[in-house]
Amino acid sequence: MHYYYLSKQLPGLKKWPLFILITSIFFMSNAGLSQSGSISIETSVDTTTAYIGNRILLEIKMLHPQNTSFILPKLDKKLGDFIILDQNLYGPDEIDNHYQSQWQFNLTVFDTGLIVIPSIKIQAFTAPDTSNILTFYTDSLFINILSVLPGDAQAPRDIKAPFPIRKFIPWDIVIFVLALLLIITGWFFYQRHWKKTHPVIRYDEKYLEPPHVIAIKKLNSLKKKEQLSAEEKKNYYSDLSEIIREYLERRYFIRALEMSSFEINEVFSKIQPNTEIQSILTSLFNELDLVKFAKFIPEDENIEKVWNKSYNFIEKTKHDNFLKIKSILENPPTTTNN
After folding, report:
1. Which terminus of the chain has fewer CB atoms gathered within 10 Å of its CB, N or C?
2. What is the pTM of this model?
3. Residue 263 has pLDDT above 60, yes or no
């Protein structure tokens, strides 16, 4: 394997910087051409003098036959002291029976003085002979980096220590916030106390309608049932008994749902002086209890009759005077034994 160097190390770098700069410019102007056979590499920059932080374009041109492949080093962030801003690879483009590939770098540096762009190792081989790999080194180029400060400018000084700031307490804001928190806390406890002493009264919607309206609605819903079996007839009579008892409890303020039929008739006879209505209720409970407790199976026509009797009882008692009922409950009539 053969090695070809584009440039040699320049002696006496520290002693003759001006000589180094002139030599670098000479290499650039002659395109730093190095070649091996039909492969050649040129290295150039767009400027040899730049200010600190400026962009510098480094261009590496590779002239080669058609089937040439290059092995390039991986350069990500830095090239010597220079920072790589970006890099691009172009080509190959056909030029005068040869092909040209370009490798371009945008560099910058944040130091001053004569700064070198180091040599880059590039390897190449031409198909079909992949065993003969040629190695090239690009020129080392020198860039004179100038400061943006004037010549008589002083060196940067250290930043002064932080100046202690006097602590200031905004008492007006503090007092306002405390007063606001006190008001909110007081309002919270007041609302809590008020809710405890004034509980929300929830009304059962079924008590917003008169007792007879609710009872008739339930009777109409019960009447829609047809073609009842024996067990369904028993349940029908139980529902009918419960409707009448609930109506009596709400209409006359007696605990009819907790009382037997006999107890209801006895209390009702003291409240309702009308003997006709008393007899309707007594007869109604007799028929209902016969099915509920004696397991009597009524005929379909009897079911309709007992429903009508329940409806008529409600119709006849729905307009009873409340004050009259209240007076009778408070002063029940006395019976004398002869």
Report:
1. C
2. 0.39
3. yes
